[in-house]
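Human: I wish I could look at a protein chain and see how it folds. This is the protein in question:
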Amino acid sequence: GAGAVGLAIAERLARTRSVLLVERHEGYGRETSSHNSGVVHAAIYYETGSLKHRLCWEGNPLIYEWAEAHNVPVRRCGKLIVALAEDERAGLDEVWGQATANGVRGIERLTGEQARALEPHVPTVEAIWSPSTGVVDPASLVRSYEGEARAHGALVVYRHAVTSVERIAGGFRLDLRDADGQSSSVTCAALVNSAGHGAPDLAAALGYPLDGGMHEGVEVPVLRQRANGGRYYDIVDPDVARMVSRPVYPLPEHQAGGLGLHLTVDTDGGAHLGPSTEWLPDGAPLDYRQVDEPEWHARFLEAGRRFLPGLRGDQIAPGQVGYRPKIQRPDQGLVDFLIWHDRGYVHLGGIESPGLTASLPIARVVDEALG
């Protein structure tokens, strides 16, 4: 898979190994990696000691260093997590406790007055300030990973789908089909499954039980994923977009599958609302198009007015749609990344946010797993 994580892994492994990266789309970062907020996270929300916590915390400064070295657009603008009403202060306390337990760099509590000095148009009652949070251009970041992977000798093959995979003596055999219907095969000593939404299908083809259990004497974790969709609406009035200069987050909605519908900015100065959290039925197609449905327009306008009370309906329009590959069930809270190694096979599951921020440390973990 040629998303941010797959290409970061390819770049890392190609320094010392012969690497082939197979991608079914026509180019890099066509799914989760290019349909997100582009936020460089600071490891605020995740369970202390989890992979999400440790790899996000490690990845935060690495993304800035990489971006500077490879001319990737990035803004270290900081982020506000805000209580917008008196009854939200207790929720802010909970976020603060997790953030301090996680050692988030430079985290501060701000009064409403202090927060409004940073974002005067947002009616904040109290806030948490995270100065190490920022925004990166995801497409440029993924392109830079691909360029460095190729520079190290990796062969990146697009428009090739894996039709079957099996274990053989000394490794694995994969059968491929290209966009013209031509078939080919390749053998490898190690197989890294960073296929995002397609990861469970590849695992199942190897015989692994997706709901966990024993396979060939090995205890297999839960590999099944569910897609959780996230719509965005863009603030299309440039004067309104310029009213905010950094991401502003509400209290998180872990049970719903996200961090709450937030207001964020990009490296080009645009402003966006989202993402929503919508659980898709199993097997539902991932449609990256969005039309302006009255119900969703009204919901985003209502959410946007909490941050910018004067926001009008004609100042927002449908933006991108993304899908989170989740191991988490709809009735669960936060679930950690899965990075699982079995005899030369490395499975990456549930690599949603903060996967972009954690992409370089994830590559390190995979490299170390393969030895």
About this structure: The chain has a mean pLDDT of 96. Residues 51-69 form the longest helix (19 residues). DSSP finds nine helices and 22 strands in the chain.
